[in-house]
Amino acid sequence: MSPEMPKSGAAASSDGLAGRVSPASSTASTLPPRPIAFEDGTVPDDHLWGRRDWLTRFGWTAVLGSLGIGTLAFVRLLYRRAPIEAPTLFQAGRVVDYAANSVSDRYMADWRVFIVRDAGRLFAIYGRCTHLGCTPRWKGRDHKFKCPCHGSGFTRAGVNFEGPAPRPLERARVWQDRDGRLWVDVARRYRHDQWELPGACIELGPEERNA
Ligand code: FES
């Protein structure tokens, strides 16, 4: 009995084995599919990441980056350290360091305070003009504080008497400790109608008046 001849057609292979795919058809099946052209004839980009993908990626990166920065800022706000406040208290020597009927500006540069001693009291004038906040200067020859900005003048007690300043200068809290040292707190200030309060001035004792 003669061997059966292979049938012609797609099912027939060149080596005569039924079911085997010919080399030509195998190559065709492994080729990448041809890109489909747009209507205008252009062929879409066949890169792994197309332009649209990159734009999407960039957009998400921007959104997530913004969220991350916002979260960090929020957390930092929650755990923000308490602000460091500038000190307001200083030690201003002793009564005997100030001559009777004198005005001292030794603490103006650091504390913006004049120490004034008259016949029976000592007080601390806060050196800020009540007009617009400039720093007045003590004019010893004229016996007055003079503001260089608009010309307001104040007596040695700090009372306004010329220029546009609407009210007297403020005083800073001053007191003596048990050892006789003077302390001034510029955070506590007294307006004219508070000058009789404790802290607005120190009443000097008989010994101090003669010191
Ligand atoms: S700020 Fe002192 S007179 Fe205007």
Describe the protein.
- It is a single chain.
- This protein is 21% helix and 23% strand.
- It is α+β, with helices and mostly antiparallel strands and 211 residues long.
- Among the domains are: 86-128 and 170-211, no CATH class; 130-169, 3-layer Sandwich (Rieske Iron-sulfur Protein), CATH 2.102.10.
- The strands form 2 sheets. Strands 1, 2, 3, 4, 9, 10 and 11 form a 7-stranded antiparallel sheet that branches. Strands 5-6-7-8 form a 4-stranded antiparallel sheet, with no helix packed on it.
- The chain starts with 22 loop residues before the first helix and ends with a helix.
- The structure holds FE2/S2 (inorganic) cluster.
- FE2/S2 (inorganic) cluster binds next to loops.
Topology:
Blueprint: H1 23-30, H2 51-78, E1 89-94, E2 102-104, H3 108-111, E3 113-117, E4 121-126, E5 137-139, E6 144-146, E7 153-154, E8 160-162, E9 171-176, E10 181-190, E11 202-203, H4 206-210
Keywords summarizing the entry:
seven-stranded antiparallel beta sheet, 211 residues, alpha+beta, 11 strands, binds FE2/S2 (inorganic) cluster, disordered N terminus
Could you tell me the radius of gyration in angstroms?
46 Å
Which structural category do the helix and sheet elements fall into? alpha+beta
| Structure summary, number of beta strands | 11
Taken from the alpha-carbon principal axes, the silhouette is elongated
Q: Please give the count of helices.
A: 4
Intertermini distance = 149 Å
Mean pLDDT: 83
User: Which series of helices and strands comes N to C?
Assistant: HHEEHEEEEEEEEEH
Multimeric state: single chain
Q: Percent of residues in beta strands?
A: 15-25%
Q: Uncertain segments of ≥5 residues (pLDDT<50)?
A: 1-22
Question: What compounds are bound to the protein?
Answer: FE2/S2 (inorganic) cluster
The percent of residues in helical segments reads 10-25%
The major beta sheet can be summarized as: 7 strands, antiparallel
